[in-house]
Amino acid sequence: MADPKGFMTTPRQEYPRRPVRERIRDWNEVYVPGALLPIIEKQADRCMDCGIPFCHDACPLGNLIPEWNDLVSRDDWRAASDRLHATNNFPEFTGRLCPAPCEAGCVLAINQPAVTIKNVEVAIADRAWEDGFAPPRPPDRLSGRTVAVVGSGPAGLAAAQQLTRAGHTVAVYERADRIGGLLRYGIPAFKMEKRHLDRRLAQMRAEGTKFRTSTTIGTDIGAAELKARYDAVILALGATAWRELDVPGRRLSGIHQAMEYLPLADRVCEGDLEVSPLSAAGRHVVIVGGGDTGADCLGTAVREGAASVTQLDIYAQPGTERDEDADPWPTYPKIYRLSAAHEEAGALGTAPAADADARLFAASTLRFDGDADGRVRSLHLVEVDERRRPVPDSGRTLPADLVLLALGFSGPDPHDGLIDQLGLELEPRGTIARGTDFGTNVPGVYAAGDAARGQSLVVWAIAEGRAVAAAVDRALSGAARSRLPAPIGPYDRPMTA
Ligand SMILES: Cc1cc2nc3c(=O)[nH]c(=O)nc-3n(C[C@H](O)[C@H](O)[C@H](O)COP(=O)(O)OP(=O)(O)OC[C@H]3O[C@@H](n4cnc5c(N)ncnc54)[C@H](O)[C@@H]3O)c2cc1C
Ligand code: SF4
């Protein structure tokens, strides 16, 4: 702790966002380029270096937060990068995308604004790349053992990097045409520009990880063939089975799942398409679902030039302060949060029927109406109470000619041939069943990430990838313990009261 009084003398200062009118005209990240470095050492100084750092426990990766806060505040960026990379393969991803449960668990947050941990993390990660502190780390020698990773999201990539560095020969199979899972197709570029992903992939290639795109395991390569070719197989298939909204009018055209819509916008950014075939330009957009995926649709629709955008959330609007009974410190509280996308839609006033941030809370969709051509034209909703009972006389109609469903995901695609071919056991909620060693019911086949945990977060996916790598390394080497760290077990969950 370079300055023991830092938390008393320096107020919390956030990474400044670009003006709304400027940033909605492009797909770049919403922050002011270069605005973090001048403030971040003082921000890191606010860390009190508490005896028991709850931030460290709240982070699924067990990031050594007080250590790197101290190193940053002392201007030792190389050492900070080493400590950060000791627990996190991809801090430039989490530093941009993580909801930062660590900050909810920061001891300072008991009675003051938390340390800007996530911003310190991204500053270290970006500086590491700029100053060459993140070179490829190929293994000293090869083990002669081979591993196939199916799925190239953050879980698959973290597992592949750990196992490659441990000396195993690793190939990552991906059915999409590019590597990255939801980091590539799903999460919009205004949250994380794809160049960060490409730079990591170049590092992984230089270390020896092989990538095979446009290859669906279960179709292009059968499960039995894959198993026969490799000593171990890791399934990091993601949770792609989306939830449906069974209300009258659902089959009208113009109603799409968020994950049918968002990847097309990513393809525009990648230069594959000039315009998205589902573009929101000039359309009245209603997003059903109040979560982050819905917010990503909101920011995308605003950038595409929607005539209006409204996001419906079935839950009541949460308060701005932590409810100490329901979500006591250091758990992650359910509070009102204004994401960059909500700020944009609110500032633009594109949601005539909704509140200032384009959200309608406690709103339940009753039905859609269409025109003579079978196209959706309006959405009917009703306000609901906390038990989801309709509030009398609260019905309203919104104009809607593009409806995006963002209702969450249950598990991997149940029709994925791979699951049947392997004879995998599934949990009742649809995720891949696994034991304490991340192994499925099929010997030599492991499962990690959203496919086994259920819909989660990038930070959990990276932690899953690191942990499954440790389990596979142990099995392949026959040793009692792996040299690789395992930050979580398969049944660990976020801290709750
Ligand atoms: C729109 C959206 C936005 C999100 N935003 C955030 C955010 O801001 N912050 C955050 O922390 N989390 C966010 N999440 C959640 C986060 O992206 C996921 O938790 C994380 O990506 C899961 O990683 P994964 O590696 O398990 O799976 P995924 O990233 O889903 O990757 C799985 C990959 O497996 C491939 N695959 C599946 N089956 C096969 C097969 N048979 N053969 C070959 N390949 C196959 C798929 O094509 C896919 O590329 C978001 C999720 C969505 C949907
Ligand atoms: S990965 Fe997430 S929880 Fe962990 S230190 Fe970074 S922002 Fe915090």
TrEMBL record:
Pathway: Amino-acid biosynthesis. The keyword Coiled coil does not apply. The keyword Iron-sulfur applies. SUPFAM superfamilies: alpha-helical ferredoxin (SSF46548), Nucleotide-binding domain (SSF51971). Keywords: Amino-acid biosynthesis, Glutamate biosynthesis, Iron, Iron-sulfur, Metal-binding, Oxidoreductase. One of its GO terms (molecular function) is glutamate synthase (NADPH) activity. Residues 38-69 form the 4Fe-4S ferredoxin-type domain. GO terms for biological process: glutamate biosynthetic process. Its EC number is 1.4.1.13. This is Glutamate synthase. It comes from Streptomyces populi.
